[in-house]
Amino acid sequence: MKILLHICCAPCAIYPVKILRSKDMDAMGFFYRKNIHPYTECLKRQETLQDYAGSIDLNVIYQEGYDLEGFIKNVVFRESDRCSFCYHDRLRSTALVAKRGKFDYFTSTLLYSKFQKHDLIKSMGESIGRSVGIPFYYMDFRTGWKEGIEESKRLGMYRQQYCGCIYSEKERYYKPDP
Predict the structure, then answer these.
(1) Which has the closest alpha carbon to 6: 114, 125, 102?
(2) pTM of this prediction exceeds 0.85
(3) CATH of range 2-173; options 1.10.245.10, 3.40.50.620, 3.30.2350.10, 2.60.120.10
(4) Could you give the angle at the alpha carbon of 166 between the alpha carbons of 41 and 11, nearest 5°?
(5) pLDDT digits (tens, 9 = 90+) for 23-44
């Protein structure tokens, strides 16, 4: 069974790739980059994934381009609901690539993070799968949260401190004076 795994970053891919391979799935990665800001952060994540993928023999499709303006245009005035747009865009892009590549399923490392809106990702993935014509493979990868973190630290991977968008970067680092 061929499955396309949307990958947000290398540390979040460790456990899902391990589990998918343990189920005899032929996993391939898809690195979606249009939501990762600033550009230097995007490059750090991509380089870390390239190194990791090479070390475990994981083929990865790397999205081309860098559409900061498009991302911002789509979330402006909807910042409080930006995750919904972002999930949808990443999952739909992955589903379309999976369909073109004749994969059997698609899934996402978003299902690994305990910080993401898991139920929303699941329902959105299933809906997108039906509309695109390729099934969404659901698995709660959060059970391997600690294992993935420990392995990424052991490997000395670059580990980002926010989800990727410019808004989450601000939430993570900007602390206004009292």
Answers:
(1) 125
(2) yes
(3) 3.40.50.620
(4) 45
(5) 999 999 999 999 999 999 999 9
